[in-house]
Structure prediction request, 324 residues.
Amino acid sequence: MTPRPRPDRRALLDELTSRGVRITAQRRALIAVIQDANRHLDAASLLQLARGRVPGTNRATVYRTIELLKRFGLIDELDLMHLDGEKHYYEASARRDHFHLACFGCGRIEEFTSPAFEQVKADISSQAGFEIRVIRLEAGGLCSMCAGSAETSRRRETPKKD
Amino acid sequence: MTPRPRPDRRALLDELTSRGVRITAQRRALIAVIQDANRHLDAASLLQLARGRVPGTNRATVYRTIELLKRFGLIDELDLMHLDGEKHYYEASARRDHFHLACFGCGRIEEFTSPAFEQVKADISSQAGFEIRVIRLEAGGLCSMCAGSAETSRRRETPKKD
DNA sequence: CTGATTGCAAAGAATTTGCACTGCT
DNA sequence: AGCAGTGCAAATTCTTTGCAATCAG
Prediction:
């Protein structure tokens, strides 16, 4: 597993144009939103934020762009243990390898890395001869804070809107 | 992480009754179906197979039973890289720890174990202080057969534009 | 120019819910 | 008996699609 450097926004756009993909205002907005995000965004949030930059952007365009970026390996899709419905979350993919710990107590998502994870990937390649294209590791449970206090079972709620 | 022995059907039922859960014909059928399964089943297959044992079993009951078994940690939910839609797949959870490799070429699901995976879990506990309740590792890519032959790996080449 | 991309509206897939009835324990 | 569990149908949530209009290269 060769760790790729994290590409900046330009690199992402360049990557697309160099592959002959047309850059529209909507796609530019969505890429910007994803790269500027400090949290994991679902399709609805992506839509809302993209509309802040390009009003009138449509839901379908968001899904089509997600599909596009996934195909080019530029974003990763997460489930985050379905802590809040069955939607998916997205993040720019070329970051340092990490995975997510979703707390059932407070709803917080923690990022985590472990050298052993690299070893797992190496094992998959060498032992199973499996050529990994995407890999996803997620855990659900109680974060250190919630595990400490026995009675922290209030789920965090998220406002819903289209 | 102590590897648990694989419980037989009786143990699963006993586990439920001992926890005060009522055993209905539908639940019995669903548990039997899950334990006898030699493949990963989605809700629709579960429904169909359960109806073979208890005709008239309803879709809602399947989902409610899945929810129940998940809550009791008796089954695990898988996505299998969404190789075929967004549905979920289920398997009895108390088997030897393993994870799944989903081949984009032939669609086959391979099971895999690695001691390094145990190490990852240990790291999560000791370093993050995170109390794991469920953990899911899935990889998508090309299995050894599909990676070998350039033919089979139709999805390996540069993704097409949208 | 011209085919790729978009918006729109409607459809689709997977799952959930309210309610009256049924059947475990 | 009493309440957890079920069936039914409709509702919800998330995502996809067909088609005509639009726009990037």
Observations:
- Chain A is about 40% helix and 20% strand.
- Confidence is low (pLDDT under 50) at residues 1-5, 151-162 of chain A.
- Strands of chain A lie at 41-42, 75-78, 89-92, 99-103, 109-112, 131-142.
